[in-house]
Amino acid sequence: MKFVESSVDVRYAETDQMGVVYHANYLVWFEIGRTKLIEHLGFKYADMEREGILSPVTDIQASYKKPLTYGQKAHIKTAVKEYSGIKVVYYYEIFNDQNELCVTGESTHVCVKKENFRPISIKKYFPEWHEAYMEMSRTE
């Protein structure tokens, strides 16, 4: 897989009573990684939304391996695991400062028309995105 990397500082407000990152924050970090990947490809979600197209999550999964704590940096690696022209599955790995794998996950998205939430063909509506996603989803 071809990964795009980003990172975030673990803030105190993102930790729970045990002093580790609260599990739901990883989903926010998945979104940061996904947005960074899209920007790396030269696109922006906002441009898609201006065209009346949204990209809701239809499925999400996370596996917790090792906790992250306040003061560490979360290093996010994001890839396109699967792309069908309609559905995109993103894959995530989050590491700590010692390069230890802390979380893996996937999120599945489809593009839909804002007014009726009917799926659209990315290839038809956004051919440049389609080509970029085809390239990202190719295995090396």
From TrEMBL:
Belongs to the 4-hydroxybenzoyl-CoA thioesterase family. It comes from the Bacteria. It is an enzyme of class 3 (hydrolase). SUPFAM superfamilies: Thioesterase/thiol ester dehydrase-isomerase (SSF54637). This is Acyl-CoA thioester hydrolase. Keywords: Hydrolase. The keyword Hydrolase applies. It holds the Pfam family 4HBT_2. The keyword DNA damage does not apply. It comes from Fictibacillus halophilus. One of its GO terms (molecular function) is hydrolase activity.
